[in-house]
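Reviewers of the previous submission asked for a worked example of the structure-prediction workflow described in the proposal, so we include one complete record here. The input consisted solely of the amino acid sequence. No template or homolog information was supplied to the procedure at any stage.
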Amino acid sequence: MNSSAKRFLIILLIMALFAVTLAACGGGQGPKIEIKDPWARPSPKMATSGAAYMIIENKGNEDDALIGVEGDVSDAIEIHEMVVDENNVMHMKPVEGQRLVIPAKGKVELKPGGYHIMLIGLKHQLQEGEVVDLTLKFEKSGEMKVQAPVKMAK
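From that input alone, the workflow returned the following structure tokens.
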């Protein structure tokens, strides 16, 4: 093999390593999800449902979506929102398709009176001081474990 062929192979190898490194780092592209201030509200006696809240921030360059939540604190867990209907009455409903978009370079705040994680069929009353373990499922970022302390609203 002559020196120009060796030089070409070395350059090709360097370019391939650079491409692999860029792909592993995400190349600065894609979503970058961070969860901030997760918490759950204590449930009143005899309540069969509860709610969890947090801020979901996407510091990446691509939208992502929360597409599900799992946990063993209740029989079912859904993503819900509070809406005002045509009669100016506020009520709760599941997010359409259980898909909540987290915009690139943006955030979505799950809070009382807005988007929230609904814990349906509580297996026990949520009491201040305990922690609720949840697994958030994102369309592109995969699963993220979250611990939400049970506490009173701020």
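The longest strand covers residues 74-84. We consider this example representative of the routine output the project will generate in years two and three.
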